[in-house]
Amino acid sequence: MADHTNKQFDVDLERIRTQLLQMGGVVEAMIQDAIDALTTGDMALVERVREREKEVNRHEIEIDERVTQILARHQPAAIDLRTLLAVTKMLTDMERSGDEAEKIATVSRRIHEDDRRFMPTIELRHMASCVSTMMHQTMDAFARHDSVLAAAVVRNDKEVDREWKSAMRNLISYMVEDPRTISRGIDLLFIARSMERIGDHCKNMAERVIYMVHGADVRHQGVKVAERLVRGETDGTT
Fold first, then answer.
1. Within a 13 Å sphere around the CA of 25, how many CA atoms are in the beta-carbon half?
2. What torsion do the CA atoms of 160, 161, 166, 172 make, to the nearest 10 degrees?
3. Relative to the CA of 80, which of 6, 124, 215, 234 has its CA 20 to 30 Å away?
4. pLDDT, tens digit only, all 238 positions of the chain
5. DSSP for 47-89, written as a single string
6. Is there a contact between 47 and 106 (Cβ–Cβ < 8 Å)?
């Protein structure tokens, strides 16, 4: 009977892991489509992002329910318990990343439907590539229990933060020098800010992967602490 119960637990846990990875793939696609909508003006991409946002919400509800059920039925311990706790926290960051992607798509629509053509020239594609890569790496780290890759995501968030600050400075300069760019400049600020927030959510999820693998909470301790932990230079206890 115990063996049967353990097998069912393994099946239930793997279903949760698989669905979270699927959810991550949807959010990653949303981010890419939202940025492509900004650069190309393809409004079909905006609609696709909106539809996928509904799919993300569905995944969030279903995974949350499955986690609640498995906790009640099996009372897991050790890494299995940490995995489930990590999933519950990652769900929130994943859903919010999807929300930010939808915001980017919505602002992109507004930019391309506006007749005004005074657009500040600012490079956001590298920032977009960074956050998209962070999302992919976070899901990869979760799938493979790769805390080293998770720590790399935590470090990469600093690069996104630098990109955000640079974009903000450049856009403010454009708006001061040419008032005609103010409306579009504000829109681009919103987009850059959403990207920065996605980076933050990826960092949060990566920290949860580190917790899942090592049982140590590295939040608010800085990237160097996380990197030392995953290299085995600390004991990882909390």
1. 7
2. 120
3. 234
4. 355 468 889 999 999 999 999 999 999 999 999 999 988 889 999 999 999 999 999 999 999 999 999 999 888 888 899 999 999 999 999 999 999 999 999 999 988 887 666 666 677 888 998 999 999 999 999 999 999 999 999 999 999 999 999 999 999 998 999 888 888 889 999 999 999 999 999 999 999 999 999 998 898 888 898 999 898 876 544 4
5. HHHHHHHHHHHHHHHHHHHHHHHHHHHH---HHHHHHHHHHHH
6. no
Q: Which residues contact 216 (CB under 8 A, 6 or more apart)?
A: 210, 229, 234, 236, 237, 238
Distance between CA atoms of 235 and 82, rounded to whole angstroms?
17
Domain covering 2-230 in this structure, CATH number: 1.20.58.220
